[in-house]
Every structure is written in structure tokens, then in C-alpha cells.
Specification:
The protein is α+β, with helices and mostly antiparallel strands. Helix content is about 20%, strand content about 25%. It is flat, with a radius of gyration of 48 Å.
Length: about 550
């Protein structure tokens, strides 16, 4: 309600109110606006007819009446009463973890070598939600299931449902969790700083006890004067999971097709065993299990025997010497179980091993002749090229069971798109009726294909039109294994082009042909350029590119 109705503080009764008779605006103010495309309501700043609001005026009047300055000397500054911003625990304590080092003792039953075992663990306490996690560091070749012992959770403290808090953890105490006692010995620097900042007094750190069995293992064995066999335990501890890998070619000439197969030879240093695996390619049609020889020790020389042996399996008593790493020399052919293998390369770890243990042996890869895929060769012999389609399409039948389209040179396709070299030609035939036949030979630079169109001749009786579709035309004498195709360098005026047992003689060409060949004169013979210049009546100076359709050669009709 506007204050202009009762500005003299009169009772709000009939007869005591006064209205402004000159007022003509009675519209309500706009309380809805748009910001960044969204409708946002706001409080009205004025009343009906742009009158000031009663509430706003009273508030301003009361503030002006009650406003006075309070000296800071008497009552102090008002900034001290401001409350600090509230920060939740999941934000303030996020990624803050206490780490304690502990151990537990595991009893060993029925073992004469050890009574108990000391197993160290790491205890993580997450301040964010008071959860804990116990992790045991993994020891290589320990044979004990290690890793995460207790996943992250709130650990129970007693039977009343209480859980462990960070105040309950200290050095030198026992933490009992699910029937296992973990003795805490040390903590990291952040944990020590946090606990001391909260007023806790940390106990002195304790050393981690030594496992008695591991201690006995480190004691050197008593020395014997008599010679003993090779220490297999030391070989297992130092050479476990260390494998020498050689790449070789298996000369399988005694088989049906007499082919050469690539193989990989693995030499396991932990027990001096050898394994041979074949290197199979996709869709090779071979056995899906590539193990050529299972992992075993290969005998090199046998002990002499005076009587024939009737045992199928060879024992160590019959072998004088086994194959060792020094027997695998790159560039040499070695015979393993009656098979011949040519070693030509090895991996990086194998080279480092020989440089450290056998520096006198030079492990230098040898050049191996290019391997001929006998399977593809047999396919080519069984399914020779019959002349239909391109050689690239027929080759896909030899590469995969389901033929795929051959790859195209996309860059060449984009650069030479819609670029065509057109020539006039006549048919070189012994029949007199072919003398008046005229053809247009088009060479497409995008994919090196040639198409031939026969121009219509009046009253010839020969159907004109497309004589040859776009295809790559091989030169005479080229073979299927190494074909040679016609290029713009071979298309000179007066040259004879043999197209699938038909001979065509080029008689004319477009002016664009000469322009293009002069722009690429580095790989075009001078005889071809001279024949075009002489026919078109152009000098040796390069001309500007003209109409690619040309004036000399007629455009073939569709």
C-alpha cells in the first residue's frame, strides 16, 4: 500500500484516508527478467504506480533513526565476531592417510626348519572416513599369498560395536584385528607430524624383527674340500624368468614342399632347457599350436657305449654334455634333434647377457635372404592368372581366405583426379576394313589405367562405342610375377601400343598432353616430347596449359 494515501499518520479508517486524485499510473512493476536466456524472478523495487514500498520506507526510516557509531576502543572491533567458513571433513581430510609399519607372527607347524615366521605389513588409516586397510608387501618367489590382507573398511574395536580411531593407534602397541595381532613399530613423517599436532605423545619407534628362517638362509654354507655339484638353488634364485630368445629359420627341405619356416628358440637359464616355437602368420593354414619342440634339455654329445641301448628316453647318465648358451652363435647353422636351424638374430636381453658372460662371442645379426612364402607360391601355381581382372585383385586370393580390395594410393588419387591424357589412334590390322576405324585412347593419371573408345564411322557396319574399359595394360613380354605397365613415357606419337593382342598406332594428342609432360619432363624421354612438339607444331619453349579437352582429339560420346 502506498504511503501517499495516509501521509499524516491518521487512523486507517473511512474518512481519514486521502488519495492523490492526479495519479494516473496504477500498473504493477515487472518482477521477471531474463539473463543468458534463462527466466529469473527478482523482488520488486517499487509499488503500484512506481510508488515506494511501505516496507522499504519503514526499514530505511528505522535504520536512519537507530544508526550510530560505536567506538572500537570501548567495544572492540566487530571482525572478531565473524564466524569461520565451515569445511566438511570429506573436503578438509581428503587424500590424507596415516601410514604405520607393523608385523605379525605366523606359527609354522610340522616344520623342522622354522617355528614361526615374521611377516611385515603396512597399515593405512584414511582420515576422511576413519577406514583402514592392511597391505602386505609382495616378496618375489616367496610362495606365500601376499598383497592386500584386509580391504579398506572400518575395523571393529570391541564387541560393543565401536571402531578404531586414529587416537587408538600408537607406536609399540598391538592392534588386534579379526583374531590377528599386528604389532606397530614405526610410522612415516606425515603421520608423526599429524599425531603430534593433535596433542598425542608417540612412543619410541622399534626395529622390525628379522625372520629367523631368512636369517639362516643368509648364513653361508659350510665349506667342503671335496668337489660338489653345481648349486641348483643359486641358479634358480638368480636366473628365474630369464630367457634367451633367438630368431632362426628352420630348413624343412625334407618335407613335402621343402619350405623354410621362421621359428623362435627359447633358452631358459633357470634349468638349461630349450623350447622351439614356430612363427605363424594369420590365415597360414597351419597347426594352431605353434610348439615345434617342447621344453627339454637337449643333449649335445653322448657317452660311448659298447652295447645297443633299449631305453627310449635318454637319461643324464647317458649324456656327456648338454647344449649351453655358448653353443648358440648367430650366423651359424645348428642341428637340434635332427633339424637344421639357421640363427640370424636375437633380442636385446640376449645380447646383453652374452656381452656380460661371454664377451668373446660376437652376437651380430646376419643378413638372411628374403623368405619366399611357399604357401602363396603354391596358390599361384594352382590358381594362375587367367587374364580377367587386375593382377592386384587376383593376388588377394593368395593372401587371405576372404579376398579384400587392394589398397589404393590415396595421395596420387587426390592429386591427379580428373586428369586425363587423350590420344588419337588407329588400329594396326591386316584386314582392309579396319583402315578407316578411328579410336580415342585415354590415359587416367589417377590410377594409371587406359580406356579406348571407337569413334562412329558412317556406313562401316561396325558398332562403335566403348572398345576397352578402364584397366591397366601390361607391356608385351611382361610376366605375371613382375609385370610392367604402360606409362605416359611410352605414349609417343607414332608409337605402337599392344592392348591385349590388338595393336594401336598413336596418331595425335591433345595440347594438354604436351603441357603435362613438359611439366614433368624429368621422367619423360626426350623422344616422346619431340614427337608431340613436332605433331602439334610447338617449339621447345614450354607453353601455358591450354584446354585439357584439346582441339585436335574429338571428345568421345557417352
Amino acid at each position: 500500500m502506498s504511503l501517499h494515501w495516509n501521509s499524516h499518520r491518521l487512523p486507517f479508517l473511512p474518512g481519514y484516508t486521502f488519495r492523490d486524485v492526479t495519479k494516473s499510473a496504477f500498473h504493477r512493476p515487472q518482477t521477471l527478467g531474463y539473463q543468458n536466456g534463462y527466466a529469473l524472478p527478482h523482488r520488486p523495487t517499487a509499488g503500484i504506480g512506481q510508488d515506494p514500498l511501505l516496507s522499504e520506507q519503514l526499514i530505511q526510516q528505522e535504520i536512519s533513526e537507530l544508526s550510530f557509531e560505536t567506538p572500537d576502543v570501548t567495544y572492540g572491533s566487530c571482525d572478531e565476531n565473524l564466524s569461520e567458513d565451515f569445511i566438511p571433513a570429506h573436503v578438509a581430510l581428503d587424500k590424507k592417510v596415516l601410514r604405520f609399519y607393523a608385523y605379525f607372527e605366523e606359527d609354522i607347524l610340522y616344520s623342522p626348519e622354522e617355528v614361526y615366521r615374521v611377516r611385515p605389513v603396512v597399515i593405512y588409516y584414511y582420515l576422511e572416513d576413519d577406514s583402514m586397510c592392511i597391505y602386505e608387501p609382495e616378496v618375489e618367489n616367496s610362495g606365500i599369498p601376499q598383497g592386500k590382507r584386509i580391504k579398506r573398511q572400518r575395523l571393529p574395536k570391541n564387541e560393543r560395536g565401536e571402531h578404531y580411531q586414529w587416537k587408538d593407534l600408537n607406536l609399540g602397541m598391538d592392534l588386534e584385528v579379526y583374531g590377528v595381532k599386528y604389532h606397530i613399530t614405526q610410522c612415516d613423517a606425515f603421520t608423526k607430524e599429524f599425531l603430534e599436532s593433535e596433542g598425542m605423545v608417540l612412543n619410541d619407534p622399534e626395529p622390525m624383527p628379522v625372520d629367523p628362517y631368512s636369517k639362516d638362509r643368509n648364513i653361508p654354507q659350510p665349506y667342503f674340500k671335496t668337489p660338489s655339484e653345481f648349486d641348483r638353488m643359486h641358479q634358480f634364485l638368480t636366473m628365474d624368468r630369464k630367457v634367451l630368445r633367438f630368431f632362426a629359420l628352420w630348413d624343412d627341405s625334407a618335407s613335402l614342399y621343402g619350405e623354410t619356416k621362421p621359428v623362435t628358440i627359447h633358452y631358459y637359464l633357470v634349468d638349461d632347457t630349450v623350447e622351439i616355437r614356430e612363427s605363424h602368420e594369420p590365415n597360414s593354414g597351419r597347426d594352431p599350436f605353434p610348439v615345434l619342440m617342447r621344453r627339454q634339455k637337449l643333449p649335445k654329445t653322448f657317452k660311448p657305449q659298447t652295447f645297443p641301448s633299449c631305453v627310449l628316453e635318454v637319461s643324464k647318465h647317458e649324456v656327456d654334455e648338454y647344449y649351453s648358451p655358448k653353443d648358440f652363435q648367430l650366423g651359424q647353422t645348428m642341428k637340434l634333434l635332427g633339424r637344421r636351424f639357421l640363427l640370424y638374430d636375437c633380442d636385446g636381453f640376449t645380447k646383453e647377457y652374452f656381452q656380460k658372460n661371454h664377451p668373446d662371442m660376437e652376437m651380430k645379426p646376419t643378413e638372411v635372404p628374403k623368405k619366399v612364402d611357399m604357401l602363396q607360391k603354391r596358390k599361384k601355381d594352382v590358381f594362375p592368372y587367367n587374364g580377367f581382372g587386375s593382377l592386384e585383385d587376383s593376388l588377394q586370393n593368395c593372401l587371405s581366405l576372404i579376398p579384400k580390395p587392394p589398397r589404393k594410393n590415396v595421395l596420387k588419387l587426390l592429386e591427379n583426379d580428373h586428369k586425363v591424357l587423350r590420344y588419337s589412334a588407329r588400329l594396326d590390322s591386316r584386314y582392309p576394313e579396319d583402315e578407316h576405324r578411328h579410336f580415342i585412347l585415354s590415359y587416367f593419371l589417377s590410377n594409371d589405367t587406359i580406356s579406348i573408345f571407337e569413334k562412329p564411322t558412317r556406313n562401316s557396319g561396325i558398332i562403335s562405342g566403348k572398345f576397352l574399359e578402364k584397366t591397366r595394360v601390361p607391356k608385351p613380354g611382361s610376366t605375371v610375377e613382375s609385370p610392367e605397365f604402360y606409362s605416359p613415357a611410352d605414349l609417343a606419337i607414332g608409337a605402337s601400343i599392344e592392348v591385349f593382342s590388338h595393336r594401336f598406332v598413336l596418331t595425335n594428342a591433345d595440347r594438354y598432353v604436351l603441357t603435362y609432360l613438359e611439366a614433368n619432363s624429368s621422367w619423360i624421354p626426350s623422344q616422346t616430347l619431340d614427337s608431340l612438339r613436332h605433331k602439334l607444331g610447338v617449339g621447345t619453349v614450354n607453353n601455358q596449359p591450354g584446354d585439357p579437352n584439346g582441339d585436335e582429339v574429338a571428345e568421345p560420346s557417352s
